[in-house]
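Service request form, structural biology core

Requester: graduate student, group of Dr. S.
Request type: structure prediction, single chain
Budget code: on file
Notes: please return the result as structure tokens.

Sequence provided:
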Amino acid sequence: MNIHENWEKALKYTEIIRARVMPLLTHSTTKLPYIFLAESSLNVGDTVVRKGEVWVERPSLVLPPNSPQFQGFDFEKESSLNQDLITSFLLVRGIRFPSLKYENKTHLLDVYEGRLRKAIEDYSHRLEREENVSTGLVAGPEDCWQFSVLIFTCAQALKSADGDIRKLLEEFRKKGRE
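Core staff response, request fulfilled:
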């Protein structure tokens, strides 16, 4: 499957079941923990569980606009796509990530013995019982999990944008009064 087909598939089938409540931090690193669930292509009837987090942080170098850095998404390993191709592909489609570093760190890759819907219910209840408001729960296709996690990350950034703009305006007004 090529990059375009993977992207379309991820857009069509990615479901953000439970979003993170807290917004992204504007001046320091934000960790976006997630649980990604997908129907297993090897063990029909089971669910692949990928637990990880995306670290969103300012890069040590000042980057030009629309030049995000994606690390740890295994695009190269799983589909022979490089960083520049992914960035260009998203940019051509009007998807602009801020020029930050997005580093995916997968902590656990496991199999849940049961269908996807059952896994979604189970993990939703676990997060609710734990009162976990920082971990996102995402479902999508197993073979394009990277795009599903990027869609989740982008949704979190969009959700934070309104508050970020308000904070910037408040800071600007305070400086104007001084």
